[in-house]
Amino acid sequence: MDFARPNVARRKWIRRVTVTTILVAIVSVITAFVSRLKPAAPEVEMSTLWPDTVKRGEMIRQVHGLGTLVPEEILHVPAPFSGRVQAAPVLPGTPVSADTILVQLKNPDMEQQALDAEWSLQTGEADLVNLKAQLQSQRLAQRADLASLEAQHRDAKAKNDRDEVLYKQGLMLDLDYRLSTTAVEDLAARIGFEKERGKALEESLDAQLNSKETQVKQLRAILQLRRDQLSALQVRAGVPGVLQQVLTQVGQQVAAGADIAVVVQPRKLKAALAVAETQAKDVQLNQKVEIDTRTGDPQTSVIRGHVTRIDPSVINGTRTVDVRLDSALPEGAVPDLSVDGTIEIDRIADAVYVARPVTAQAGGEISLFKIGPDGKEATRVKVKLGRTSVNTVEIVDGLRVGDRVILSDMTAMDGYDRIRLK
Fold it and tell me: N or C: which end of the chain has fewer CB within 10 A?
């Protein structure tokens, strides 16, 4: 005979509730425990990283700049006069001497002026020859007059000498003798006057001749000037070098003074470096520089120099620094060749430093992964930086000498404080 058990269903319900409560509690405890666990450290291949060791010693501060080789001496050849370009026989890149004709100009007005000057000179020279003939005729006429008076004086003197003898012998009247003497004295006075007139005439004739000769010299100088101007239309290099650029074309009309060509000295080059404005503030004159021309052999492609000029203006965030080269240029170094320049700012005798990370800024803070002693794990540390150089940075706080750190860009690991190395 069966009996009813009313508490069985109740006990089953209580059992279910108890089990459910226990399961919920267990899940809550596990969830809380898991939430407190640190995320698993990701693994990074060590061969893909850039590690370095913190060192202590002399730190050379340097700044870097890209630039080009530019001529120290650039001659802009101007057009001496206006004209039309007839020919440009020399191509850019050609070595030239001082007398090499770069551009031939034509100016019809100047050609006409030269022709007019030539005709004026010929006319002046003809007038000079005619004047010389006239003056010579006047000189001869004056000399003939003087010679005639001197002949008359000699005749009169001879006659007077004879009359004096006759007068002393009483064979001539006193009046006739005095007339004879007076004639001699008159001719002597006329000879003196004629000589004075001859001197004055010579001075006058010389003045006329000098004036005309001066005019002819002036015309000759004008003609030479016109010819020199025509010759200058054959525009020459002026100095030996290399023709870098021709700024005109055949048939083009150019104005006087306009640049028509550029000549450079190919072996007298300097480096013009573009240095970041933030780094250029530390650059000073005469600082040492190494210029890498990248022309082949590393031992000869790097040449030394020193800073000679710092452009005060800022263009696109950079300032131009001119570097004079102190050693010979390597083969293949030409104007406009791209170069790398490294300027030595100063030397810190005793510094704690490491190779410069990609994102390092002078005086800033940066987080780096410090490699553990076993080399299998790296932990993020805060590092305070000091002065920077091209390849190194000073460590102020956060690292010690001998610490190994990862300098690669680790922005992909910003969410982790630890990484595993493999």
Answer: N
